[in-house]
Each structure stands twice: as structure tokens, then as C-alpha cells.
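Researcher: Re-running this chain for the archive, since the previous output was lost when a drive failed. Same request as before.
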Amino acid sequence: MIEAASVTTVMRALADPTRRALFERVARSDEITVVELTRGSSVTQGAISQHLKALKQAGLVAERPEGRKVYYRVQPEGLEPLADWMGHYGAFWRERFSDLRTLLKEIDP
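Model: Regenerated C-alpha cells:
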């Protein structure tokens, strides 16, 4: 069955629009530093770090320290609880689409 705490943690982490945008920027690069994420952003470096911390705690990003820099990368497996939760409802939608297909055929044979 689906692990509710993990789904809740991932949803909370991605619920914040700034954090979600940050996650997307990390996902578009192999690895990226806080300095690079701050560049061209209206968010402070401290706020970026806090958002990255939340993403890391949710299992969505990993960090790799190298000297004075810390590189962040997406952990795709961190999205598994959300994908599993959404997949659980896939049967619901497949059934509805099947019903719609049947209805449309009845209306316009």
C-alpha cells in the first residue's frame, strides 16, 4: 500500500511555488550550486538554502560537497511516493474514460 507520510512529505515540499521552481531548475541541470541557483533569481541565497534543505529532507534532492561548494542534483526516486499515489487513482480515470468512450459511441455510432 501507499506510504502516507512519504506522500505528504513530498507534497508539502512541492506545494510551495518557489520550492517547486527551484526543484525544476535543479532537475534541468546535472548538478548546480546555491550560488548558481541564486543568480537570476529574486530569492536570497539564504532562502534558496532553506528551500534546498526542505527538498533534501523530502528526499527530492541530494548534495555533494566539493571544497567550499555544495552541488545539488535531483533524486528521481524521491518522486516515487507521489507517482505511486497518483498511479493508485489511475484505475479510476481509466474506468471513466472507458465509460466516456462508450457514451460517445452511443451518441454518435
